[in-house]
Amino acid sequence: MNHPIRVNFERLREDVLALSRIGQTPDQGIHRMAFSEGDLEGRRWFRSRIEAAGLEVYEDGAANLHARLDWDDKRPSVMMGSHLDTVPGGGPLDGALGVLVGLEVLRTVKEAGVALKHPLEAVDFTDEEGRFGGLFGSQAIAGQLTPAVIHNARDLDGVTLTEAMASWGLDANAALFARRAPDSIHAYLELHIEQGPVLDRNQVSIGVVDAITGLFKWDVRLMGQTNHAGTTPMDMRVDSFQGLAEFAGEINRILEEHGSPHSRATIGRVELKPGAANTVPGQTSFSLDVRDTDAETLRNLADAFRRTLSALARRRDLMFEFDVLSEIPPMRCDPGLVQLVTDTAERLELKHLRMPSGAAHDAQIMGSVTRTGMIFVPSLEGKSHSASEWTAWEDIERGANLALHTVLQLAAADAGAAIREQKPKRKQA
Protein backbone atom coordinates (compact mmCIF):
# COMPACT_ATOMS: atom_id res chain seq x y z
CA MET A 1 0.00 0.00 0.00
CA ASN A 2 1.29 3.48 -0.88
CA HIS A 3 1.77 6.12 1.83
CA PRO A 4 3.02 9.74 2.01
CA ILE A 5 6.76 9.99 1.56
CA ARG A 6 8.76 10.63 4.73
CA VAL A 7 12.39 10.49 5.75
CA ASN A 8 13.75 7.44 7.55
CA PHE A 9 13.99 9.21 10.87
CA GLU A 10 15.61 6.34 12.78
CA ARG A 11 18.47 6.35 10.28
CA LEU A 12 18.81 10.13 10.52
CA ARG A 13 18.88 9.94 14.31
CA GLU A 14 21.60 7.29 14.21
CA ASP A 15 23.65 9.53 11.93
CA VAL A 16 23.28 12.53 14.28
CA LEU A 17 24.44 10.46 17.25
CA ALA A 18 27.31 8.80 15.38
CA LEU A 19 28.67 12.10 14.06
CA SER A 20 28.33 13.78 17.47
CA ARG A 21 30.90 11.34 18.87
CA ILE A 22 33.55 12.41 16.35
CA GLY A 23 35.77 15.08 17.87
CA GLN A 24 33.94 14.94 21.21
CA THR A 25 35.96 15.52 24.39
CA PRO A 26 35.11 14.41 27.96
CA ASP A 27 33.30 17.70 28.62
CA GLN A 28 30.97 16.76 25.72
CA GLY A 29 32.18 19.68 23.59
CA ILE A 30 32.99 18.85 19.96
CA HIS A 31 36.25 19.90 18.33
CA ARG A 32 36.07 19.59 14.55
CA MET A 33 37.69 22.85 13.51
CA ALA A 34 38.43 23.14 9.80
CA PHE A 35 41.34 20.94 8.66
CA SER A 36 41.85 19.50 12.13
CA GLU A 37 42.04 15.78 12.86
CA GLY A 38 38.43 15.86 14.06
CA ASP A 39 37.33 17.52 10.83
CA LEU A 40 39.21 14.92 8.78
CA GLU A 41 37.57 12.06 10.70
CA GLY A 42 34.13 13.65 10.29
CA ARG A 43 34.67 14.00 6.55
CA ARG A 44 35.78 10.39 6.23
CA TRP A 45 32.66 9.28 8.10
CA PHE A 46 30.41 11.43 5.88
CA ARG A 47 32.03 10.05 2.73
CA SER A 48 31.44 6.50 3.97
CA ARG A 49 27.74 7.26 4.56
CA ILE A 50 27.38 8.69 1.05
CA GLU A 51 29.01 5.60 -0.44
CA ALA A 52 26.91 3.25 1.71
CA ALA A 53 23.78 4.88 0.29
CA GLY A 54 24.91 4.23 -3.27
CA LEU A 55 25.21 7.94 -4.03
CA GLU A 56 27.94 9.64 -6.04
CA VAL A 57 30.72 11.34 -4.04
CA TYR A 58 32.45 14.43 -5.39
CA GLU A 59 35.11 16.60 -3.69
CA ASP A 60 35.80 19.96 -5.32
CA GLY A 61 38.94 22.10 -5.13
CA ALA A 62 37.82 23.80 -1.91
CA ALA A 63 37.44 20.38 -0.23
CA ASN A 64 33.64 20.70 -0.23
CA LEU A 65 32.17 17.19 -0.11
CA HIS A 66 29.13 16.62 -2.34
CA ALA A 67 26.67 13.71 -2.26
CA ARG A 68 24.93 13.52 -5.64
CA LEU A 69 21.83 11.76 -6.94
CA ASP A 70 20.94 11.41 -10.62
CA TRP A 71 23.89 13.59 -11.60
CA ASP A 72 24.60 14.08 -15.31
CA ASP A 73 26.55 17.38 -15.31
CA LYS A 74 23.95 18.85 -17.68
CA ARG A 75 20.81 19.71 -15.72
CA PRO A 76 20.94 22.32 -12.91
CA SER A 77 20.79 20.73 -9.47
CA VAL A 78 18.75 21.37 -6.36
CA MET A 79 21.39 21.75 -3.66
CA MET A 80 21.12 21.35 0.10
CA GLY A 81 23.92 21.70 2.59
CA SER A 82 25.67 23.23 5.56
CA HIS A 83 28.91 22.34 7.35
CA LEU A 84 30.46 19.64 9.52
CA ASP A 85 33.20 21.82 11.04
CA THR A 86 32.60 23.25 14.52
CA VAL A 87 33.81 26.00 16.80
CA PRO A 88 36.10 24.75 19.60
CA GLY A 89 33.89 22.95 22.10
CA GLY A 90 30.83 23.26 19.86
CA GLY A 91 27.58 21.34 19.84
CA PRO A 92 26.36 18.38 17.79
CA LEU A 93 23.87 20.13 15.48
CA ASP A 94 25.21 23.51 14.30
CA GLY A 95 25.86 22.93 10.63
CA ALA A 96 25.97 19.16 10.93
CA LEU A 97 22.18 18.78 11.03
CA GLY A 98 21.76 20.51 7.68
CA VAL A 99 24.33 18.23 6.04
CA LEU A 100 22.77 15.09 7.50
CA VAL A 101 19.23 16.11 6.58
CA GLY A 102 20.44 16.78 3.05
CA LEU A 103 21.95 13.30 2.89
CA GLU A 104 18.78 11.74 4.27
CA VAL A 105 16.64 13.56 1.68
CA LEU A 106 18.80 12.12 -1.10
CA ARG A 107 18.58 8.61 0.36
CA THR A 108 14.82 8.84 0.78
CA VAL A 109 14.27 10.07 -2.77
CA LYS A 110 16.56 7.36 -4.16
CA GLU A 111 14.84 4.58 -2.24
CA ALA A 112 11.40 5.85 -3.24
CA GLY A 113 12.36 5.70 -6.90
CA VAL A 114 11.26 9.28 -7.54
CA ALA A 115 11.95 10.48 -11.10
CA LEU A 116 13.84 13.77 -11.02
CA LYS A 117 13.90 16.67 -13.45
CA HIS A 118 16.77 18.18 -11.43
CA PRO A 119 19.64 16.23 -9.81
CA LEU A 120 20.05 16.53 -6.06
CA GLU A 121 23.16 17.50 -4.11
CA ALA A 122 23.92 17.52 -0.38
CA VAL A 123 27.09 19.48 0.44
CA ASP A 124 29.43 19.73 3.41
CA PHE A 125 30.93 23.22 2.98
CA THR A 126 34.52 23.76 4.17
CA ASP A 127 35.36 26.08 7.10
CA GLU A 128 32.01 27.77 7.65
CA GLU A 129 32.92 28.49 11.27
CA GLY A 130 35.86 30.68 10.40
CA ARG A 131 39.12 29.13 11.51
CA PHE A 132 40.56 30.81 8.41
CA GLY A 133 38.00 33.57 8.03
CA GLY A 134 34.77 31.70 7.50
CA LEU A 135 32.46 30.57 4.70
CA PHE A 136 35.45 29.45 2.62
CA GLY A 137 33.69 26.55 0.90
CA SER A 138 30.57 28.40 -0.16
CA GLN A 139 32.62 31.43 -1.20
CA ALA A 140 34.63 29.13 -3.47
CA ILE A 141 31.47 27.81 -5.12
CA ALA A 142 30.17 31.38 -5.48
CA GLY A 143 33.41 32.52 -7.12
CA GLN A 144 34.18 35.03 -4.36
CA LEU A 145 37.77 33.94 -3.71
CA THR A 146 40.96 35.39 -5.18
CA PRO A 147 44.56 34.17 -4.97
CA ALA A 148 45.28 36.99 -2.50
CA VAL A 149 42.40 36.00 -0.20
CA ILE A 150 43.60 32.41 -0.18
CA HIS A 151 47.24 33.39 0.39
CA ASN A 152 46.43 35.75 3.29
CA ALA A 153 43.99 33.44 5.12
CA ARG A 154 45.39 32.31 8.47
CA ASP A 155 44.08 31.24 11.84
CA LEU A 156 44.63 32.89 15.24
CA ASP A 157 47.82 30.87 15.76
CA GLY A 158 49.30 32.07 12.49
CA VAL A 159 48.78 28.80 10.59
CA THR A 160 47.93 29.62 6.98
CA LEU A 161 45.11 28.06 5.00
CA THR A 162 47.68 27.02 2.41
CA GLU A 163 49.68 25.13 5.06
CA ALA A 164 46.59 23.51 6.57
CA MET A 165 45.33 22.24 3.22
CA ALA A 166 48.82 21.10 2.20
CA SER A 167 48.93 18.93 5.34
CA TRP A 168 46.00 17.03 3.81
CA GLY A 169 47.72 16.83 0.44
CA LEU A 170 45.51 19.59 -1.00
CA ASP A 171 46.38 22.67 -3.04
CA ALA A 172 44.57 25.70 -1.60
CA ASN A 173 44.61 27.49 -4.96
CA ALA A 174 42.51 24.67 -6.42
CA ALA A 175 39.60 26.34 -4.58
CA LEU A 176 39.52 28.84 -7.43
CA PHE A 177 38.27 26.02 -9.67
CA ALA A 178 35.39 25.10 -7.35
CA ARG A 179 33.31 27.97 -8.75
CA ARG A 180 29.91 26.92 -10.08
CA ALA A 181 28.12 28.69 -12.90
CA PRO A 182 24.78 30.14 -11.74
CA ASP A 183 22.91 28.12 -14.36
CA SER A 184 24.26 24.88 -12.83
CA ILE A 185 22.20 25.30 -9.63
CA HIS A 186 18.40 25.44 -9.79
CA ALA A 187 17.94 26.36 -6.11
CA TYR A 188 19.66 26.06 -2.72
CA LEU A 189 17.90 25.07 0.53
CA GLU A 190 19.57 24.92 3.95
CA LEU A 191 18.12 23.49 7.14
CA HIS A 192 19.76 24.78 10.33
CA ILE A 193 19.14 25.07 14.03
CA GLU A 194 18.03 28.58 14.94
CA GLN A 195 20.89 29.16 17.42
CA GLY A 196 18.62 31.60 19.25
CA PRO A 197 15.61 31.45 21.60
CA VAL A 198 12.73 32.74 19.43
CA LEU A 199 11.25 29.44 18.22
CA ASP A 200 11.78 27.68 21.54
CA ARG A 201 10.17 30.46 23.59
CA ASN A 202 7.21 30.63 21.21
CA GLN A 203 6.88 26.83 21.08
CA VAL A 204 7.05 26.86 17.27
CA SER A 205 8.62 23.93 15.42
CA ILE A 206 9.63 25.66 12.18
CA GLY A 207 11.23 28.97 11.28
CA VAL A 208 10.86 30.10 7.68
CA VAL A 209 13.84 32.39 7.16
CA ASP A 210 13.19 35.46 5.01
CA ALA A 211 16.50 37.31 5.51
CA ILE A 212 20.03 36.52 6.73
CA THR A 213 22.05 39.07 8.64
CA GLY A 214 25.10 40.74 7.23
CA LEU A 215 28.01 41.73 9.43
CA PHE A 216 31.28 43.53 9.75
CA LYS A 217 33.98 42.53 12.20
CA TRP A 218 36.75 44.91 13.27
CA ASP A 219 39.95 44.54 15.27
CA VAL A 220 40.18 47.91 17.08
CA ARG A 221 43.20 49.36 18.86
CA LEU A 222 43.26 52.35 21.22
CA MET A 223 46.78 53.53 22.09
CA GLY A 224 47.55 55.67 25.13
CA GLN A 225 50.52 55.75 27.52
CA THR A 226 51.76 52.91 29.70
CA ASN A 227 52.45 54.16 33.23
CA HIS A 228 52.67 53.25 36.90
CA ALA A 229 49.31 52.61 38.55
CA GLY A 230 50.37 54.08 41.88
CA THR A 231 52.36 57.14 40.91
CA THR A 232 50.37 58.47 37.95
CA PRO A 233 47.55 60.85 39.05
CA MET A 234 44.16 60.13 37.55
CA ASP A 235 43.99 63.44 35.73
CA MET A 236 47.39 62.87 34.13
CA ARG A 237 46.70 59.41 32.70
CA VAL A 238 46.22 58.51 29.04
CA ASP A 239 44.42 55.25 29.83
CA SER A 240 43.48 53.27 26.73
CA PHE A 241 41.06 51.06 28.64
CA GLN A 242 39.04 54.05 29.81
CA GLY A 243 38.50 54.82 26.14
CA LEU A 244 37.07 51.33 25.62
CA ALA A 245 34.87 51.68 28.70
CA GLU A 246 33.39 54.91 27.33
CA PHE A 247 32.90 53.37 23.89
CA ALA A 248 31.15 50.30 25.32
CA GLY A 249 28.70 52.59 27.08
CA GLU A 250 27.82 54.20 23.74
CA ILE A 251 26.85 50.99 21.93
CA ASN A 252 23.15 50.97 22.84
CA ARG A 253 22.80 54.64 21.91
CA ILE A 254 24.37 54.03 18.51
CA LEU A 255 22.08 51.09 17.83
CA GLU A 256 19.00 53.08 18.84
CA GLU A 257 19.93 56.09 16.69
CA HIS A 258 21.35 54.37 13.61
CA GLY A 259 20.22 50.74 13.76
CA SER A 260 17.05 48.70 13.53
CA PRO A 261 15.28 46.08 15.68
CA HIS A 262 17.53 43.52 13.95
CA SER A 263 20.79 45.32 14.81
CA ARG A 264 23.36 43.66 17.07
CA ALA A 265 26.77 44.85 18.28
CA THR A 266 29.20 42.84 20.40
CA ILE A 267 32.62 43.32 21.95
CA GLY A 268 33.66 39.71 22.45
CA ARG A 269 37.42 39.96 22.97
CA VAL A 270 39.54 42.47 24.87
CA GLU A 271 43.32 42.51 25.37
CA LEU A 272 45.17 45.00 27.55
CA LYS A 273 48.89 45.70 27.18
CA PRO A 274 51.14 45.32 29.00
CA GLY A 275 48.46 43.52 31.02
CA ALA A 276 49.85 44.00 34.55
CA ALA A 277 47.66 44.72 37.56
CA ASN A 278 49.83 47.65 38.65
CA THR A 279 50.20 49.29 35.23
CA VAL A 280 47.98 51.74 33.34
CA PRO A 281 47.29 49.96 30.02
CA GLY A 282 49.00 51.73 27.13
CA GLN A 283 47.13 49.75 24.50
CA THR A 284 43.67 48.21 24.42
CA SER A 285 42.74 45.90 21.57
CA PHE A 286 39.22 44.63 21.13
CA SER A 287 36.88 43.04 18.60
CA LEU A 288 33.70 44.69 17.37
CA ASP A 289 31.08 42.49 15.69
CA VAL A 290 28.09 44.36 14.20
CA ARG A 291 25.13 42.76 12.39
CA ASP A 292 21.92 43.71 10.63
CA THR A 293 19.72 42.34 7.84
CA ASP A 294 19.83 45.61 5.84
CA ALA A 295 22.94 46.71 3.94
CA GLU A 296 22.30 50.46 4.29
CA THR A 297 21.73 50.12 8.03
CA LEU A 298 25.06 48.30 8.33
CA ARG A 299 26.82 51.13 6.48
CA ASN A 300 25.19 53.70 8.77
CA LEU A 301 26.26 51.74 11.84
CA ALA A 302 29.84 51.46 10.57
CA ASP A 303 29.98 55.22 10.07
CA ALA A 304 28.51 55.88 13.52
CA PHE A 305 30.91 53.52 15.30
CA ARG A 306 33.88 55.00 13.43
CA ARG A 307 32.86 58.58 14.31
CA THR A 308 32.32 57.71 17.96
CA LEU A 309 35.70 56.00 18.29
CA SER A 310 37.46 58.88 16.55
CA ALA A 311 35.79 61.51 18.74
CA LEU A 312 36.52 59.81 22.06
CA ALA A 313 40.10 59.11 21.00
CA ARG A 314 40.68 62.81 20.31
CA ARG A 315 39.03 63.82 23.56
CA ARG A 316 41.17 61.38 25.57
CA ASP A 317 44.46 61.99 23.67
CA LEU A 318 44.40 58.41 22.37
CA MET A 319 45.47 57.08 19.00
CA PHE A 320 42.80 55.03 17.24
CA GLU A 321 43.11 52.48 14.42
CA PHE A 322 41.24 49.42 13.25
CA ASP A 323 41.47 46.57 10.75
CA VAL A 324 38.44 45.11 8.97
CA LEU A 325 38.57 41.37 9.66
CA SER A 326 35.48 40.45 7.65
CA GLU A 327 32.52 41.95 5.85
CA ILE A 328 29.57 39.78 4.83
CA PRO A 329 26.61 41.42 3.10
CA PRO A 330 23.07 40.63 4.27
CA MET A 331 20.83 38.57 2.02
CA ARG A 332 17.11 38.41 1.39
CA CYS A 333 15.90 34.87 0.80
CA ASP A 334 14.19 34.27 -2.51
CA PRO A 335 10.51 35.30 -2.08
CA GLY A 336 9.32 32.36 -4.16
CA LEU A 337 11.24 29.87 -2.02
CA VAL A 338 10.08 31.55 1.19
CA GLN A 339 6.49 31.14 0.00
CA LEU A 340 7.10 27.53 -1.10
CA VAL A 341 8.49 26.60 2.33
CA THR A 342 5.60 28.42 4.01
CA ASP A 343 2.95 26.72 1.87
CA THR A 344 4.59 23.32 2.38
CA ALA A 345 4.69 23.81 6.16
CA GLU A 346 0.99 24.68 6.12
CA ARG A 347 0.16 21.62 4.04
CA LEU A 348 2.10 19.44 6.48
CA GLU A 349 0.27 21.19 9.37
CA LEU A 350 3.50 22.41 10.93
CA LYS A 351 3.38 25.44 13.20
CA HIS A 352 5.79 27.96 11.69
CA LEU A 353 7.07 31.51 11.99
CA ARG A 354 8.68 33.82 9.43
CA MET A 355 11.86 35.28 10.86
CA PRO A 356 15.33 36.63 10.03
CA SER A 357 18.55 34.81 10.81
CA GLY A 358 20.86 36.65 13.19
CA ALA A 359 23.75 34.33 12.35
CA ALA A 360 25.68 34.09 9.11
CA HIS A 361 25.27 30.93 7.03
CA ASP A 362 26.50 29.42 3.80
CA ALA A 363 23.02 30.20 2.45
CA GLN A 364 23.75 33.92 2.22
CA ILE A 365 26.82 33.25 0.09
CA MET A 366 24.86 30.86 -2.10
CA GLY A 367 22.28 33.61 -2.51
CA SER A 368 24.71 35.38 -4.83
CA VAL A 369 24.63 32.36 -7.17
CA THR A 370 21.10 31.03 -7.05
CA ARG A 371 17.71 31.48 -5.38
CA THR A 372 18.07 30.48 -1.77
CA GLY A 373 15.86 29.49 1.16
CA MET A 374 16.38 28.41 4.77
CA ILE A 375 14.46 26.35 7.31
CA PHE A 376 15.09 26.74 11.05
CA VAL A 377 14.31 24.24 13.80
CA PRO A 378 14.31 25.33 17.47
CA SER A 379 17.37 25.44 19.70
CA LEU A 380 16.47 24.42 23.23
CA GLU A 381 16.79 27.53 25.45
CA GLY A 382 18.41 29.24 22.47
CA LYS A 383 21.79 27.60 23.17
CA SER A 384 24.39 27.05 20.46
CA HIS A 385 28.17 26.95 20.03
CA SER A 386 28.30 24.92 23.25
CA ALA A 387 28.00 21.33 24.43
CA SER A 388 24.48 22.09 25.69
CA GLU A 389 23.22 22.82 22.15
CA TRP A 390 20.25 20.58 21.31
CA THR A 391 16.97 20.31 19.40
CA ALA A 392 14.09 17.99 20.28
CA TRP A 393 14.00 14.87 18.10
CA GLU A 394 10.42 15.54 17.02
CA ASP A 395 11.39 19.00 15.76
CA ILE A 396 14.33 17.53 13.84
CA GLU A 397 11.94 15.05 12.21
CA ARG A 398 9.46 17.81 11.32
CA GLY A 399 12.20 19.94 9.80
CA ALA A 400 13.62 17.03 7.82
CA ASN A 401 10.26 16.14 6.33
CA LEU A 402 9.60 19.78 5.48
CA ALA A 403 12.96 19.91 3.67
CA LEU A 404 12.12 16.67 1.84
CA HIS A 405 8.73 17.89 0.62
CA THR A 406 10.12 21.29 -0.37
CA VAL A 407 12.92 19.67 -2.38
CA LEU A 408 10.49 17.30 -4.09
CA GLN A 409 8.45 20.24 -5.31
CA LEU A 410 11.60 21.82 -6.68
CA ALA A 411 13.19 18.73 -8.23
CA ALA A 412 10.72 15.89 -8.86
CA ALA A 413 9.54 15.27 -12.42
CA ASP A 414 6.01 14.82 -11.05
CA ALA A 415 6.11 16.70 -7.75
CA GLY A 416 2.49 16.00 -6.82
CA ALA A 417 2.80 12.25 -7.24
CA ALA A 418 6.17 12.15 -5.48
CA ILE A 419 4.78 13.94 -2.44
CA ARG A 420 1.65 11.81 -2.22
CA GLU A 421 3.06 8.37 -2.74
CA GLN A 422 6.12 6.36 -1.86
CA LYS A 423 6.87 2.90 -3.16
CA PRO A 424 7.33 0.48 -0.24
CA LYS A 425 10.99 -0.53 -0.03
CA ARG A 426 13.15 -2.44 2.38
CA LYS A 427 14.73 -0.04 4.85
CA GLN A 428 18.49 0.33 4.60
CA ALA A 429 20.74 0.68 7.60
From TrEMBL:
This is Amidase, hydantoinase/carbamoylase family. Residues 214-315 form the Peptidase M20 dimerisation domain. Pfam families: M20_dimer, Peptidase_M20. Its cofactor is Zn(2+). Gene3D superfamilies: 3.30.70.360, Zn peptidases. It comes from the Bacteria. Belongs to the peptidase M20 family. The keyword Zinc applies. NCBIfam families: hydantase, PRK09290.1-5. The keyword Hydrolase applies. Its EC number is 3.5.1.87. GO terms for molecular function: hydrolase activity, acting on carbon-nitrogen (but not peptide) bonds, in linear amidines; metal ion binding; N-carbamoyl-L-amino-acid hydrolase activity. It is an enzyme of class 3 (hydrolase). It comes from Thioalkalivibrio sulfidiphilus (strain HL-EbGR7). Binds 2 Zn(2+) ions per subunit. PANTHER family: ALLANTOATE AMIDOHYDROLASE, ALLANTOATE DEIMINASE-RELATED. The lineage of its organism: Bacteria, Pseudomonadati, Pseudomonadota, Gammaproteobacteria, Chromatiales. Keywords: Hydrolase, Metal-binding, Zinc. Zn(2+) 1 binds at residues 83, 94, 192. Zn(2+) 2 binds at residues 94, 129, 385.
